[in-house]
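Project outcomes to date are best conveyed with an example. Our students and postdoctoral researchers have been running inverse folding experiments weekly, and each run begins with a structure described purely in C-alpha coordinates. The record below, which covers 164 residues, was selected by the lab manager from last quarter's runs and is presented without edits.
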Protein backbone atom coordinates (compact mmCIF):
# COMPACT_ATOMS: atom_id res chain seq x y z
CA UNK A 1 0.00 0.00 0.00
CA UNK A 2 1.27 3.43 -0.94
CA UNK A 3 1.13 6.07 1.78
CA UNK A 4 0.69 9.64 0.64
CA UNK A 5 1.09 12.61 2.97
CA UNK A 6 0.09 15.93 1.45
CA UNK A 7 -0.56 17.62 4.80
CA UNK A 8 3.16 18.05 5.39
CA UNK A 9 3.79 19.60 1.99
CA UNK A 10 3.63 23.31 1.43
CA UNK A 11 0.66 24.67 -0.46
CA UNK A 12 3.07 25.52 -3.27
CA UNK A 13 4.32 21.92 -3.43
CA UNK A 14 0.79 20.52 -3.39
CA UNK A 15 -0.37 22.81 -6.19
CA UNK A 16 2.75 22.03 -8.23
CA UNK A 17 2.03 18.31 -7.91
CA UNK A 18 -1.66 18.86 -8.67
CA UNK A 19 -0.78 20.62 -11.92
CA UNK A 20 1.57 17.90 -13.19
CA UNK A 21 0.75 15.03 -15.48
CA UNK A 22 0.53 12.62 -12.57
CA UNK A 23 -2.43 10.57 -11.38
CA UNK A 24 -2.53 12.10 -7.90
CA UNK A 25 -3.57 14.40 -6.46
CA UNK A 26 -6.71 14.89 -8.47
CA UNK A 27 -10.26 16.14 -8.17
CA UNK A 28 -11.16 14.25 -5.01
CA UNK A 29 -8.08 15.44 -3.20
CA UNK A 30 -8.72 19.01 -4.33
CA UNK A 31 -12.33 18.72 -3.11
CA UNK A 32 -11.12 17.61 0.33
CA UNK A 33 -8.65 20.51 0.47
CA UNK A 34 -11.34 22.97 -0.55
CA UNK A 35 -13.60 21.63 2.19
CA UNK A 36 -10.76 21.87 4.73
CA UNK A 37 -10.34 25.53 3.79
CA UNK A 38 -14.05 26.12 4.40
CA UNK A 39 -13.92 24.37 7.77
CA UNK A 40 -10.82 26.40 8.64
CA UNK A 41 -12.73 29.60 8.00
CA UNK A 42 -15.51 28.41 10.31
CA UNK A 43 -12.93 27.85 13.04
CA UNK A 44 -11.36 31.25 12.40
CA UNK A 45 -14.70 33.07 12.60
CA UNK A 46 -15.55 31.15 15.76
CA UNK A 47 -12.22 32.02 17.37
CA UNK A 48 -12.72 35.69 16.53
CA UNK A 49 -16.29 35.56 17.85
CA UNK A 50 -15.32 34.14 21.24
CA UNK A 51 -14.48 36.46 24.11
CA UNK A 52 -16.45 39.42 22.84
CA UNK A 53 -17.93 41.70 25.51
CA UNK A 54 -21.44 41.36 24.08
CA UNK A 55 -21.40 37.57 24.43
CA UNK A 56 -23.40 35.90 27.17
CA UNK A 57 -22.19 32.73 28.84
CA UNK A 58 -24.62 30.74 26.68
CA UNK A 59 -23.21 32.31 23.49
CA UNK A 60 -19.65 31.53 24.60
CA UNK A 61 -20.62 27.92 25.32
CA UNK A 62 -22.27 27.52 21.94
CA UNK A 63 -19.27 29.03 20.17
CA UNK A 64 -17.03 26.65 22.11
CA UNK A 65 -19.18 23.75 20.92
CA UNK A 66 -18.96 24.96 17.31
CA UNK A 67 -15.18 25.17 17.56
CA UNK A 68 -15.03 21.72 19.17
CA UNK A 69 -16.93 20.41 16.13
CA UNK A 70 -15.28 22.41 13.34
CA UNK A 71 -11.70 21.58 14.27
CA UNK A 72 -12.02 17.77 14.04
CA UNK A 73 -13.86 18.24 10.74
CA UNK A 74 -11.03 20.41 9.41
CA UNK A 75 -8.37 17.97 10.55
CA UNK A 76 -10.17 14.95 9.09
CA UNK A 77 -10.65 16.75 5.77
CA UNK A 78 -6.93 17.45 5.72
CA UNK A 79 -6.31 13.70 6.14
CA UNK A 80 -8.76 12.98 3.32
CA UNK A 81 -6.68 15.14 0.94
CA UNK A 82 -4.10 12.33 1.04
CA UNK A 83 -6.46 9.39 1.57
CA UNK A 84 -8.33 10.24 -1.62
CA UNK A 85 -5.11 9.93 -3.60
CA UNK A 86 -4.29 6.61 -1.96
CA UNK A 87 -7.76 5.31 -2.81
CA UNK A 88 -7.42 6.43 -6.42
CA UNK A 89 -4.10 4.62 -6.78
CA UNK A 90 -5.81 1.45 -5.54
CA UNK A 91 -8.54 1.89 -8.16
CA UNK A 92 -5.88 2.30 -10.85
CA UNK A 93 -3.95 -0.75 -9.69
CA UNK A 94 -7.12 -2.86 -9.56
CA UNK A 95 -7.93 -2.22 -13.24
CA UNK A 96 -5.68 -5.09 -14.24
CA UNK A 97 -7.13 -7.40 -11.58
CA UNK A 98 -10.32 -9.44 -11.39
CA UNK A 99 -13.81 -7.93 -11.04
CA UNK A 100 -13.98 -8.58 -7.30
CA UNK A 101 -10.76 -6.63 -6.69
CA UNK A 102 -12.06 -3.83 -8.91
CA UNK A 103 -15.33 -3.64 -6.98
CA UNK A 104 -13.48 -3.56 -3.66
CA UNK A 105 -11.19 -0.77 -4.86
CA UNK A 106 -14.16 1.16 -6.26
CA UNK A 107 -15.99 0.85 -2.94
CA UNK A 108 -12.95 2.21 -1.13
CA UNK A 109 -12.53 4.94 -3.75
CA UNK A 110 -16.12 6.00 -3.29
CA UNK A 111 -15.88 6.04 0.52
CA UNK A 112 -13.42 8.94 0.68
CA UNK A 113 -15.39 11.50 -1.35
CA UNK A 114 -18.57 10.31 0.35
CA UNK A 115 -16.98 11.17 3.69
CA UNK A 116 -15.99 14.57 2.28
CA UNK A 117 -19.66 15.15 1.41
CA UNK A 118 -20.78 14.18 4.91
CA UNK A 119 -18.20 16.42 6.57
CA UNK A 120 -19.15 19.34 4.33
CA UNK A 121 -22.74 18.91 5.41
CA UNK A 122 -21.74 18.83 9.09
CA UNK A 123 -19.60 21.94 8.68
CA UNK A 124 -22.32 23.83 6.82
CA UNK A 125 -24.72 23.11 9.68
CA UNK A 126 -22.38 25.02 12.03
CA UNK A 127 -22.70 28.30 10.16
CA UNK A 128 -26.21 29.62 10.96
CA UNK A 129 -25.27 30.37 14.55
CA UNK A 130 -22.16 32.22 13.39
CA UNK A 131 -24.31 34.36 11.13
CA UNK A 132 -26.66 35.06 14.02
CA UNK A 133 -24.23 35.47 16.94
CA UNK A 134 -20.73 35.52 15.50
CA UNK A 135 -18.52 38.52 14.94
CA UNK A 136 -20.51 40.69 12.50
CA UNK A 137 -17.33 41.88 10.80
CA UNK A 138 -16.66 38.32 9.65
CA UNK A 139 -19.95 37.50 7.94
CA UNK A 140 -18.19 37.56 4.58
CA UNK A 141 -15.80 34.88 5.85
CA UNK A 142 -18.77 32.72 6.81
CA UNK A 143 -20.17 33.27 3.33
CA UNK A 144 -16.84 32.27 1.75
CA UNK A 145 -16.75 29.19 3.99
CA UNK A 146 -20.20 28.23 2.75
CA UNK A 147 -19.19 28.71 -0.89
CA UNK A 148 -16.08 26.56 -0.41
CA UNK A 149 -18.01 23.84 1.42
CA UNK A 150 -20.80 23.77 -1.17
CA UNK A 151 -18.25 23.62 -3.98
CA UNK A 152 -16.34 20.84 -2.23
CA UNK A 153 -19.58 18.94 -1.58
CA UNK A 154 -20.53 19.09 -5.26
CA UNK A 155 -17.03 18.17 -6.41
CA UNK A 156 -16.87 15.23 -4.01
CA UNK A 157 -20.29 14.10 -5.21
CA UNK A 158 -18.90 13.98 -8.75
CA UNK A 159 -16.05 11.78 -7.49
CA UNK A 160 -18.50 9.44 -5.73
CA UNK A 161 -20.29 8.98 -9.05
CA UNK A 162 -17.08 8.49 -11.04
CA UNK A 163 -15.59 6.05 -8.53
CA UNK A 164 -18.75 3.91 -8.38
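After processing, the design step wrote out the following sequence:
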Amino acid sequence: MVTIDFKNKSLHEYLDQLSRREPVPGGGSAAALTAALGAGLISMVTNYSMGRKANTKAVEQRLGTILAQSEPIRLRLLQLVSLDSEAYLKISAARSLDKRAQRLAAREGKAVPLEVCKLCYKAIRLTPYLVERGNPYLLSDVEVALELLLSAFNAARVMVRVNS
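The domain at 24-163 is CATH 1.20.120.680 (Four Helix Bundle (Hemerythrin (Met), subunit A)). The CA atoms of residues 46 and 63 lie 6 Å apart. The training component of this project remains on track.
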